[in-house]
């Protein structure tokens, strides 16, 4: 006949196993729910969340198709200091850039600091990086001038390039600051 300790151990072990099985069942249900909401069956609306595009290193927001059949979206990438928003159009087999906007943070809000519109310019990552860095350099130049501060052109360009590179960091990297995704709702509401 088993002692009290053995019975208590078996009972505790059974209770722990039931809790583990219950948690696994809950986790599986949550996973199924998540997958169903972001990858629904045909005819079911998809949960409205920004989509991370690893190839372009940006979140894709506000997708729509025009009456002419052209497809448009806003691409958003950011770091802890700025956000870069691309307005992108797809026409037949061409992807072109409509505009680039640079935002600076102001508390939990954002302020547009630079905007450049383009006409029939093919989208190219090197072009986006270069234009974004130029725009940030112009912003830093104007701020330095209004503040009466002397900053070398090289220093402004270096700072601009560093910020742009931080914005092109992959969201999937282990060291990406997930809290930065709180920025997305502020950017999505910008028109």
What do you see in this structure?
It is a single chain. This protein is α+β, with helices and mostly antiparallel strands and 191 residues long. It folds into two domains: 1-47; 51-188, no CATH class. It has four helices and six strands, in the order H-E-E-E-E-E-E-H-H-H. The protein has helices at residues 4-38, 125-147, 153-167, 184-188, and strands spanning 51-53, 58-65, 71-78, 82-91, 94-106, 109-122. A six-stranded antiparallel sheet has the order 1-2-3-4-5-6. Strand 4 (82-91) and strand 5 form a beta hairpin. The chain is globular. Residues 18-30 have low confidence and may be disordered.
In terms of structural class, how would the helical and strand content be classed?
alpha+beta
Total domains, how many? Answer: 2
Shape: globular
Radius of gyration: 24 Å
The number of helical runs is: 4
What would the average pLDDT be, to the nearest integer? 79
Summarize the main sheet.
6 strands, antiparallel
Q: Give me the oligomer status.
A: single chain
Strand composition percent: 25-35%
Distance between the termini: 76 Å
